[in-house]
Amino acid sequence: MISSPPKPAKPKLSTRRRLIDATARLFAEHGYNGLTMRSVAQEADANLAAANYHFGSKDALVLEMLRERIQPINKRRIALLEEARLRNGK
Q1: Cβ atoms of residues 70 and 63 within 8 Å
Q2: Range 48-75 burial, b when 16+ CB lie within 10 A, else e
Q3: Which of 18, 51, 52, 72 could, after both became Cys, cross-link 41 (CB 3.0–4.6 A)?
Q4: Per-residue pLDDT tens for 16-37?
């Protein structure tokens, strides 16, 4: 019997990425006080040791998640301010 070749696995997101994405979901649902490193690790299908390895604390994890989301907004804001400054000759 000839078996078909295995389907290529979908690339799995890195543990760090899964932790940040899980933090965003839980933060949106429950707020800062409603999430724990343990709940984030569980949501990310990671272990608590991995969460601590990558971030060290809940504060560091939440700050990284917020930084990732705020940075593109801030870049766009600065670009728009620069465009307005150039249009007004300042």
Answers
A1: no
A2: eeebeebbeebeebbebbeeeeeeeeee
A3: 51
A4: 999 999 999 999 999 999 999 9
Domains of the chain are 15-87 (1.10.10.60)
Distance CA 83, CA 65 (A): 28
| Contacts with 35 (C-beta within 8 Å, 6 or more apart), sequence order | 23, 26, 27, 58, 62
Asked if residue 19 lies in contact with residue 41, where contact means CB atoms within 8 angstroms, the answer is yes
Measured between alpha carbons, how far is 14 from 46 in angstroms, rounded to an integer?
A: 10
Place of tokens 């600065």: 78
| Pick from 55, 38, 56, 34: nearest CA to 47 | 38
